[in-house]
Specification:
The complex is a heterodimer of chains A (440) and B (756). Chain A is of the alpha+beta class. Chain A contains 8 helices and 23 strands. Among the domains of chain B are: 109 residues; 28 residues, no CATH class. The longest helix of chain B has 20 residues. The chains are: A alpha+beta (440), B mainly alpha (756). At the A-B interface, strand 2, helix 1, strand 3, strand 4 and helix 2 of A face helix 1, helix 3, helix 5, helix 7 and helix 9 of B. Chain A: It comes from Citrus sinensis.
Amino acid sequence: MPVAASAIYFLNLRGDVLINRLYRDDVGGNMVDAFRTHIMQTKELGTCPVRQIGGCSFFYMRISNVYIVIVVSSNANVACAFKFVVEAVALFKSYFGGAFDEDAIRNNFVLIYELLDEIMDFGYPQNLSPEILKLYITQEGVRSPFSSKPTDRPVPNATLQVTGAVGWRREGLVYKKNEVFLDIVESVNLLMSSKGSVLRCDVTGKILMKCFLSGMPDLKLGLNDKIGLEKESQLKSRPTKSGKTIELDDVTFHQCVNLTRFNSEKTVSFVPPDGEFELMKYRITEGVNLPFRVLPTIKELGRTRMEVNVKIKSVFGAKMFALGVVIKIPVPKQTAKTSFQVTSGRAKYNASIDCLVWKIRKFPGQTEPTMSAEVELISTMAEKKSWTRPPIQMEFQVPMFTASGLRVRFLKVWEKSGYNTVEWVRYITKAGSYEIRLAS
Amino acid sequence: MAPPAQAHRSPSPSQPSGKGEVSDLKSQLRQLAGSRAPGIDDSKRELFKKVISYMTIGIDVSAVFGEMVMCSATSDIVLKKMCYLYVGNYAKVNPDLALLTINFLQRDCKDEDPMIRGLALRSLCSLRVANLVEYLVGPLGLGLKDNNSYVRTVAVIGVLKLYHISAPTCIDADFPPTLKHLMLNDPDPQVVANCLSALQEIWSLEASTSEEASREREALISKPVIYYLLNRIKEFSEWAQCLVLELVAKYVPLDSNEIFDIMNLLEDRLQHANGAVVLSTIKVFLHLTLSMTDVHQQVYERIKAPLLTLVSSGSPEQSYAVLSHLHILVMRAPFIFASDYKHFYCQYNEPSYVKKLKLEMLTAVANESNTYEIVTELCEYAANVDIPIARESIRAVGKIALQQYDVNAIVDRLLQFLEMEKDYVTAEALVLVKDLLRKYPQWSHDCIAVVGSISSQNVQEPKAKAALIWMLGEYSQDMQDAPYILESLTENWEEEPSAEVRLHLLTAVMKCFFKRPPETQKVLGAALAAGLADFHQDVHDRALFYHRLLQYNVSVAERVVNPPKQAVSVFADTQSSEIKDRIFDEFNSLSVVYQKPSYMFTDKDYRGPFEFSDELGNLSIAAESADNVVPAQGVEANDKDLLLSTSEKEEIRGATFNVSGYSAPLYDSSAASVQSELAIISSTSAGSAPSSSLAIDDLLGLGLSAAPAPEPASVPPSLKLNSKAILDPGTFQQKWRQLPISLSQVYLPFLTLILF
């Protein structure tokens, strides 16, 4: 069995039960106490998200200030259980309109109980698609189409949709203006050695889509990925146009994408769900354009003084800007005093994370601001070698830039009524885990 | 079966006891029950909400059961749902009152709104009161035939619920055959999926008593059913796909064409956004190709990319789940992943459970071409703030050193660790140097020079201290100060808390005595005297043994204590290959995360000291005492103990426990550790596990008949996989062959690997 969850609990950080749903009788009612005493009140918390206590296994996840705990008594499918939690949270968020935290749960607990009933029955996951659930579980409940105004929307139709073949889209949608928004969001991960060589670098990207389209449209998306382009030139028997092509290491798609067609024709074609969804995810390891180069030098001058110099080079187009750039340069715990000189942005010492934090709100391309800082340390005898030199970490967002070089070549919308659509495409690259190690 | 939570849980002190509130609610509900005023539903809703919220925080509100039922006559669907929830929670402890609800639930089961029919049916089946089951059969039968698919999905699960309340009622009502019919004919995929879940559960549980049920269970993995489900796979929800794929993984195809057909059909599932679906597909691929060596290897190549993507996306918990699976694959076929070692580099902020797995994988994939990079990277982690991870990475360096031929550079690194002047680094490095010396005695010269400079005062951890003492004894001829260090250690005999260290000290002094008698004689006397007076049985016995041995004949004693030693070529593996295969068979489940087969954590007999009890306080003590047992278990015979100490403590505990539990369930895990250690060795040496297909069957509990399910005499022509797939089997195979195969020269080890 993939998951026959016996119970699901929502706890706050103190361990109080916000909501619980017991799906099966095969676990005792004091399961949550076991979780509290053996996981929450020990150092175990955070050491492993799967724990066995007695005959039961606990899967837990922390999301903002809430722990979600699934209890199973059999040899369950772990990936499935976590995915279920993630999907359930996404579903709740789409109902609450954003945040998922303790307050949101308290304010919506009746709704959550309703949803928990529908998304899982006797421990088996059922339907988690917000699009469909929203047809029959509405926030106003009583204003639900079935109970008060059954004439508005015929009942059988709606329930048929619950389990229908195109489970992610209902029929008969009408928009005055047909629009599609595409967001290509990439996060670039870097691990740079202290000698300046790239140890590991990859990009995980996703294409987010927001559709406001009438009827049952068929969409086709073309990217500048290598395989797709090759296939296309094969089909049209003409050479590939010059220009950069991207080699995707791996792609995964939303369930709406016709995978058979992707495998044969290498085109992404699909009937999209209404509203917002994640169309695809991809991973690239070759030919990544790093938006920033970081050149740090740290000199320890004796026992109580350090000199920190950091130069950041932006290597994207001069017309582009990075936003919200934050560079965190670690310093020893016993830092007493710091003084800075920066050519751009502002820097300060943050004692709670033991870092010099240098912020640059708007960072143009092809520039290289520097920061030099002097750090004075309290001299201690005991901790002479305890500074482990954690890596420099960086946060940023670069709009209209993709670290992978991926571009949308076309997005075709076809619907039998033949309406016109407006398509919007945005690109943004964010820092995933961008780490530069320091020489020791 | 345990009672529902709320009934027995006393409210925690921070929460109101709720007595006053409950009686308050009671009277308010009473007022509303009969009223038909407009807007009454809204005030009812507020009250119901209050009741539910009390219920959630653990206040017993079963006292208002009657009033809740009276208020349930409403058309408001939200009110109904709250009422159903309440009733479901308390019916079990109030069976008499539950009878009151039957009426309105049965009425709702015939409502014209399918939503209400479904909800009522679900609640009816959730009452869990044994003497009410007679009321379930009728509505369930109607529900299964309902023309609305929502009601049918609910009814199918309802049958399963009924089975758990009263199995005979469910069987007598002939529900399982009905479910089977639905499974094979219902147009709605969710109904089909639920039928499959229900039937799997019912027939597995029935199989022990009924021949027919076990036949039926096997029929589920017969060709017609599997093909039917596979042909509809794209209609199913992602969760149902996992369910179906799990079933397909158990199917044994007739020939390789069938295997390729299935793989061809499922290949696109590897691109599914849901990691659970991808993992299930991988399981199918791996299990189908077990007997086809070359294709099996191609499967590894094919699934690498999707797995690595899954690891790098999603929450840490999700990537941990995937990483555990990647881990088991890396361990089975390390060379296939050798070029991907950079994916296993740790990020600074990653949780330690992720780092730990990555370290193990880095260790496993190290080969001639990447060792340098990997060891360099591991040395970075040795300075990590996270001390367990720092330790783990030093151990990893040591493990790589033990599995490589060219250890030059690695030995230098280890010696550098010794000079880092961090207690835990020194401790781990000492243990490793000891293991290295046992495998590569030729390095003794370099190592001893460094080890000799370490002050024994700076080494506190028993394991490290024991290692240091072992080296002092073994190489006393090369270490100037050895007798004197041993002497000072012996002087502090009383202060030494660890029996393990004292045992090693005894042996080291003996060894030293035979190498440098004049300098050691005095120490030997002191050590033997202290040993004889020791309160620890093992220490006492060993001292007595040495004493008598020396009395009997000194040259015999020398031969016993200082025999010519052979370098250890391979250190014993702590986990038997049989266990590893079991885990592999249970791919995509908890077994992989726990790294032990499911019987060890689901069977009560194997669970050992972590028994769950109502007195929670006891539990933690039990867990602690289990930890304390470990050192005691570890201090058995001198060299055999060293043999095992390469691996970490936990592994030993796990393995000794596991093996003793597995191979001879009769004996208690805490006793007889010698036997179980021997059992490890014997089971690894005689590790030729039964052929894997048998293991699968066994796993499924199909031990009775290993033969495949009753095969339909002639396969009807309709029984074909949809030809939606774009490639014919021939080209498909061709395509798979084209996938790059890394390191084909290491092909042989792989062969043996998967045969086992």
